[in-house]
Task: structure prediction
Amino acid sequence: MSAATAIAATAAVLGAGYNIYSGERAASAQKDAQQQAEQQVQQQAQADQATAKIAEQQAQTQNEAIQAQTANAQQTAQQQLNAANPQRPNTSAMLSAIQQAAQGGNGGTMLTGPQGVQPGALTLGKSTLLGS
Result:
């Protein structure tokens, strides 16, 4: 082989080796860039999730505040309604019930019945009433 052919062959091998090395570096750089892009996407997704969670918590807090205000307003309205329309006892119905009970004669209780107390039960075997 001539020296020129040997030099050309050596140059070709070195060129091929450099191309392989350069290709590997480019692939490695591309892989690194892809990993970095994936990390950025993951970080953005995590940031979006955190933002969504904060927004959800704020919405829940606002909803609870609105519910508390609504309950307070309902309670106030009920108190005002009760103050405007106070309940009073139905004295006429009570008086009527008492009068009807009095028309039945001597009052009886659950212990004595409608006939009242028997006078003989008060004497305790003596001819006079108790206390006389």
